[in-house]
Amino acid sequence: MLKKESLLHKKQIFFYWVMKKIQFSALCLILIFSVTSCIKKVLTEESLSVKNKEISGFIFTAKADIYPHFIENPETEPEKLLQRGERVHLIIEVSHDWARVKAYDEKSKRQHAVGKTVIYIFKKDLIKGKKPEEMIDRYIETMFLKSPVK
């Protein structure tokens, strides 16, 4: 009789331990999801929408050859993204950690275009006191001439 009670007691302790582990894991998952949902994106959805609507009315012409500035591999020569004088449309995309500007051929429709990433701004690279929108505008003004869509 004593052996049965001892075995039953061990099973209860094991079951209790497993339940505590499950509760702890569930609590950790809830905490992770709540924290990650509060993380702000580089640009808010509203400002992203405004910026994309603003730049959609223009064709952008590359002032010079554009190479990827976000790839640092000294062993290979970077591939040219755009040639000087190439005309493109731009669109801005964001994540929690970055904002990027993609260029696609002026004759392509956005939904069918693959596009080339010409600007990456990482959250860690944001300049204090400057809004990400201002940094994106500065990059675009430096790299492109803009003219209204006809």
Structure description:
The chain is elongated. The protein is α+β, with helices and mostly antiparallel strands and 150 residues long. The chain has helices at 2-38, 45-55, 132-143, and strands spanning 58-62, 87-94, 98-105, 116-122, 144-148. It folds into two domains: 1-38; 45-148, no CATH class. Strands 4-3-2-1-5 form a five-stranded antiparallel sheet.
Number of helical segments?
3
Spans where pLDDT lies below 50 across 5 or more residues: none
Q: How far from one another are the termini?
A: 93 Å
Strand content: 15-25%
Rg over alpha carbons:
26 Å
Strand order of the largest sheet: 4-3-2-1-5
- The total of beta strands comes to 5
Which structural class fits the helix and strand makeup?
alpha+beta
The percentage helix is: 40-55%
Q: Report the average pLDDT across residues.
A: 78
Structural domain tally: 2
Largest sheet entry: 5 strands, antiparallel
Please trace the helix and strand order, writing H or E for each element. HHEEEEHE
Q: What global shape is seen? A: elongated
